[in-house]
Every structure is written in structure tokens, then in C-alpha cells.
Amino acid sequence: MKRLIATLCLLVTAAGIASGQTQVEPDMALQMLNAQQQQFEKGVVKVADNVYTAIGFHGANTTMIVGTDGVIIVDTLFGPTSAAQAADAFRQYSDKPVKAIIYTHSHGDHIGGASAFVGEEKPDIYGTETFGSAEGVNNAVDPVKAKRNVRQFGRNLSSSEMTNRGVAPAGTEDSDRGKGFLPPTVTVPSSGLKTTIAGVDIEFHIGPGETDDAMFIWLPKAKVLLAGDNFYSSFPNLYAIRGTAYRDVLNWSESVGKMAALEPHVVIPGHTMPIQGQEAATTALQDYSEAIRSVYDQTVRGINAGKGPDQLAHEVKLPKHLREKPYLIEFYGTVPHAVRAIYSGLLGWYDGNPTTLSPMEPRLKARKIAELAGGTQKLTERMNAALAEQDYQWALELSDHVKWLDDGDKELARKVKIEALRGLAAREYNAPNRNYYLSYANELESGALSDLWF
Predict the structure, then answer these.
(1) Cβ pair 268, 63 in contact under 8 A
(2) Distance, CA of 224 to CA of 35 (rounded, Å)
(3) CATH of the domain at 374
(4) pLDDT of 51-61, one tens digit each?
(5) Between the CA of residue 166 and those of 145, 264, 424, what are the distances in Å?
(6) Shared domain check, 391 and 429
(7) Same domain, 291 and 369
(8) Domain Metallo-beta-lactamase, which positions (predicted)?
(9) What CATH number does residue 84 fall under?
(10) Do 265 and 177 fall within a single domain?
(11) Is the Cβ–Cβ distance between 228 and 214 less than 8 Å?
(12) For residues 446 and 435, is the Cβ–Cβ distance under 8 A?
């Protein structure tokens, strides 16, 4: 773990990375993603005398706590196939029956494999009062979210295109998603719960953050904290590009602050390797809470100064003393995405500028941009020049204008967009961004998208 941290710190320094900028030279991007890959190498880590965490069996972690007459399982992976492999690995350390299963929250990669841990004895299964609300109330847009989910996680990428998912390995077994889910039988009240299970003193603390139904688990004797997805080694995904309801950023920061106040000797994240040692674990949580709060506070100040989300997304940065922390590198979430989510979560889509109150229809705007450029041919030339100059974002934006023009070369615009997306992807060390660019490029190339590229 120390070697990994040192490697990441050296790479960040070498790349000269600024907060909110996840584009570097292609070789550096791959080096960074390959280094992050060590965070989820498959295996079981013993974090205390009676606590074992299985990492890399799927995207999330699962943990076994060994008690006097049984074991407790915290989170159960994505489906019974991956969960069964983790259960077999755990059996090297204990063959006691499972007395309880705990879900830290209701995301599918934490709840789908419960059946693989259950034998003849039926365990109690713990969830919060609001369990099941992880995705908010936006089920109406599930069809498009499903498509964007595939892109974000790179589920259809070839082996040569895959790197990882920022806080999880790529190429996981997903065909049995949720088939091992068992519903909670014990509800943890909003005030939390302190109890003893299989002789283990255990505390359930309600901690909304990535989801509204989240909680964190504290083992007071072992000084071990199970954080769920409110902490992992990456800047947090305060907004997921697959599409999510607003994740209450302030609540998230406060929940992580409460974890830090416990001064754990070990923090077990929902994804990535545990952090061991009181100073390291506590400092990581303090820094994480501060980072989230800083992005929130800066965004709110900018909002109240009349700035819009586009401007703020380029202005808000992590404090200097946090930028090179290995657990805050933007492998999964990004500061610009967080800023935009906070803005829309607090104020909605309108940025307060009357220019954007009723913007032009895209086809009309494209026509006027072409006129400004000196005609469709000139605009097309500028699009090609941007691509040749490796100004990939500008090439993307110009290709989106050309596609709307009646006299525009839509096939050329499509090809430029594909090349520009792959150019951006090669320079991305943020895994969701990288995966999305590549996935969309492949869909464009295969003809899976409509003529309007939706």
C-alpha cells in the first residue's frame, strides 16, 4: 500500500496535475490508471484479528467479521457468482455460519450476491429505514440511464480498450446481477443502532452521502470503520455521468466528518484497499470531508456572486494541500462534475443569465455559427483543423454544429467526432470519462446511434 501511494504521488507530481484537469499525455494517463489498478487487486486482506475484506472479486468490497459462534458479512457484491468466490475465499479463515448480513446502502454492486453467503441457517439482514432509495425517484428515465451506465463503466469495451472503472476493475462478471439479493429483515432506525451480533459489539450509524440510504458500521473494540461508498480512494463521485438525482454534498461531507471523529485504526472503503493505521485512516477521512466541503463552499460562493456553472466548473479547485493526496486523485469523480451537480441541485438548470433563458434551437444556432465562420465549408475546415491540431474538445463541439446543417457533411462530422472522442479518451485518467468517450465513439462507428447521435 505504501508503495502504491508513493507511485501515485510521483505520477501526480510528474504530470503536473491541477485539480479539475483530468487530461494528461496518453502514456501518463495509462501509467496512472495502471497504478490505481493495484487498489483492487483480487485477494483477501486481514485488517484486524477478526476482520477480513475481500477485494477485486467484483467492483465493490465485501467484508467478513468473525464472531464467537458465527460471522457477519458487510455488503455482498453484484451477484451470486462473484459473491460465491469471495465466500469461498473467506472460508479459509472461518467456517462459522453467517449470523448477519449488513447492507451499507442499496446500490446493486453491494446487495446482489447475498444468497451465496447463506447456508441452512437464515441470517438477519440489516438495512436502513430508507433502504432502496439509492437511485432517488427518477425511475422514469431508467432506459437512458441504463445506456449511460454501460458507457460510464465501459461494459462493452474490448479488452484492448479497457483499463478500469476508477475504483473497480473492468471486465467483471455481470450476467447474474442482483440474482442473489435477499431483502432486509431488520430495519436500522434513523437514530442508529448499537447491538451485539455473534459476540461482536457493533454500531450502525446513519450516514447519507453517495446515497440517501447509506450507513457506516463501527466496530468499537477493533477500532475498524466500514465506510460503504461514502469513502474510497478517489475524489468522490459527487455526480455520476450515467445520470443521478442530486447527491446531497453537504450531508456527504458531514457523514465523513462523523467517521473521522471516531479516529479509526482502519477504514474499509466500499471500493479500493483498506487504509490502516490510526493516523493514516483518520487523516484520510478528515481530508475527504474537507475536500467535499471545500468544493461545496466554493461553488456556493460563486453562485452567490452570480457566476454560472460553466464558469465555476473551470474555477473551483481543491485546496493545494489536498490536490496530491492519493485518495483524492480524480480517478472516479471530478471537481467540475461535482460543481455542476451542486449548482443544479441547489438552483436547477437556469444559470440566471437572460441570454440562456431561451437559447436558440440547435439547428438554428449551427446555421448562425456557420455564417459567422464564413459558410459551411469554412466551418468544416475549422473542424478538420481542430482535429489535426489535437484540439479535441473544439473539434467535438464543431462536429456537433456541422451535423445539424442541411448542407453539412454529416458523415465527415461523425468521423471527426469519433476521432476526437478517442483522442480525449487516450488522455483521460478519469475512468468514467475515458470509458464514456470510448464507448460513445464505438457506438457512433457501429451505427448504433441515430443520425442526430443521441
Answers:
(1) yes
(2) 26
(3) 1.25.40.880
(4) 999 999 999 99
(5) 19, 25, 17
(6) yes
(7) no
(8) 59-271
(9) 3.60.15.30
(10) yes
(11) yes
(12) no
